[in-house]
Amino acid sequence: MVVGELTDLPYLPELPARGPGADIVGRAAAGVLSGIDVDVFAGRWRLATRPGFDQRRARALLSRDLDALEEVAGDREGPVKVQVCGPWTLAARLELPRGGPALGDPGASRDVAESLAEGVAEYVAGVRRRLPGARVLVQIDEPSLPAVLRGDIPTMSGFSRVAAVEPRTAQEALAGVLGAIEGADGWPLVHGCAPDLPLRLLHDAGARGVSLDVSLLTSADDDEVGELVEAGLGLLVGCVPTSEPATPLSADDVLTTVRDWWKRIGLTTDQLVTRTALTPTCGLAGASPSWARDATALAVRAARTVADR
Q1: Of 61, 66, 172, 211, which one has the fewest beta carbons inside 10 Å?
Q2: pTM assigned to the model
Q3: In this structure, what is the dihedral angle of CA atoms 117, 136, 284, 224, given to the nearest 10 degrees?
Q4: Beta strands in the chain (DSSP E)
């Protein structure tokens, strides 16, 4: 369905309802990290001293998914997107062996970021071997980054919070991962679906594009968004709801929201066509299969309408 509907930019779907190892954290921690082992304890992924069943299962799921992508898109020439959980969301959601988020241990956070940088380069190389004609876009998912920067990640007890990470430290870790993607001839993107996404930090860390929910942007963000687009940042504009709305949407309904926001920023229609892609507001893992297809098709129709007009 993805390759058929998204002829310009197909992606490798993540289907977390299949269980541990198919989820955002497990897929990256068990399937992509290099030199770090993990397992599941009390329903949460944690750092471990040796690989176990959960890690092997996660790697097998990822391998089967890549096999499926190769079967339907192995001869593709053009962009294909894959996605990996980012270093700060991993550090916030991975547990230390003794409990508590890895984020609370600066050494563990650093190890996770370095391991991810090494592993994601290997991942890109593996995708390119399967799809030799494709341009691999790698989306780093960082839904927890704003909370990490605010100091809003709970400790093991839940009664306090892990200290906020300094923006410079966050940028350096992200730069290592994004640089590793470019070094492997990939194209780095960052996705965030929480308010207060630090766009300038992401741009300065090396993101070529940022995927965001346009409904979360306020007028206070306008100047920064405009400056970064002028500086060359691409935007994946989340403008189609991830769950089916009560009232049916048309492509024009979607475009009204996008055009009104774009005019507010003060950028040109040409820039809208050349610097953006239109997407759902976040992932479709919680959508029904029918709405996942409809939302995808709606984003495509809206984007083609922009280009045609």
Answers
A1: 172
A2: 0.96
A3: 70
A4: 37-41, 44-48, 78-85, 134-141, 187-191, 209-213, 234-240, 276-280
